[in-house]
Amino acid sequence: MKNKIKILAMAIMSVAFTTTVFGQKVDSRVNNASYIKPEKILRNDVPKDVIENFVKDHPAVQNEQWRGYPTEDFRNVWYDYNPSLNSSSASDYFVAEFWEGGEHQEGMYSRDGKKIAIHKKIDSQLPQPILDAIKKGVYKNWKIAKEKEEIFRDYSLDQLKVYKVTVQKGSSKHFLFYSADGALLKDKIIQ
C-alpha cells in the first residue's frame, strides 16, 4: 500500500513539474511573440525607383538585403521604423541592409524612391551631450548597450543626425533617440 502511495505521489509530482516547466516555455514565447523576424525580399520585387535611387546613393554596394514594410508616417519620426513588422514586396517603404566603407548600414526608401533615412551602426562613444543627458536623466543607473546607431536623413545634412541608444535595467529595455545636442526626442519601450 505504501508503495502505491509513493508511486502515485511521484506521478503527481512529475505531472506538476512537467506542467510548470512547459508552462514557463510557453510564457516566454508569449512575451517574445510581439517580435516577428522580418523576411527578406528579392531585389527584383523592390520598385524600380527605389533600386535606382539606392544605386545612385551607394554605387559601390553589392549584395544588399531588402525588406519591405507597411505604411508608416515618417514626417515627425523619420529616424524610427519597426523592424518587427511583417515584410513583403507589397509594402510602402523598403529597407536595404548593406556594408559600405566597412560599416553596417540600413537605407530606408519610400515606394516612390525617396530616401527617408540612413541608419549606421556605430561602436564609438556617443557625443558628450548625449552621455551627459543620460547621466543626468532617469536612465542614469541603466546599462547602455554596446550597439548604437547614428541616423541621418542625408549624409550632407549633419544637423539632422539622430542617435539611437539601447538602455537596459533588469528585464526593462528602451530605445532612446537623441539629437546630437543631447535632447531626448523619443523614448520607445521595448520590454
| Count of helix runs | 3
Strand elements, count: 8
How far is it from the N-terminal to the C-terminal residue, by CA? Answer: 52 Å
Structural class based on helices, strands and sheet pairing = alpha+beta
Domain count: the total is: 2
- How helix-rich are the residues, as a percent range? 25-40%
Give the DSSP E fraction (strand runs of 2 or more residues).
25-35%
H/E element order = HHEEEEHEEEE
Q: Mean of residue pLDDT?
A: 78
**Major beta sheet summary:** 8 strands, antiparallel
Q: Unreliable stretches, pLDDT < 50, 5 or more residues?
A: 17-35
- The backbone outline, from C-alpha atoms, is globular
- Main-sheet strand order equals 1-2-3-4-5-6-7-8
What assembly state would you assign to the polypeptide chains in this entry? Answer: single chain
The value of Rg in angstroms is: 23 Å
Structure overview:
The chain is globular. The chain folds into 2 domains: 43-121, no CATH class; 128-189. Helix content is 26%, strand content 32%. Strand 3 (103-110) and strand 4 form a beta hairpin. It has 191 residues and is an alpha+beta fold. The termini are far apart.
SSE topology sketch:
Elements: H1 2-32, H2 48-57, E1 65-69, E2 93-100, E3 103-110, E4 115-122, H3 128-136, E5 143-152, E6 162-169, E7 172-179, E8 184-189
Antiparallel strand pairs: 1-2, 2-3, 3-4, 4-5, 5-6, 6-7, 7-8
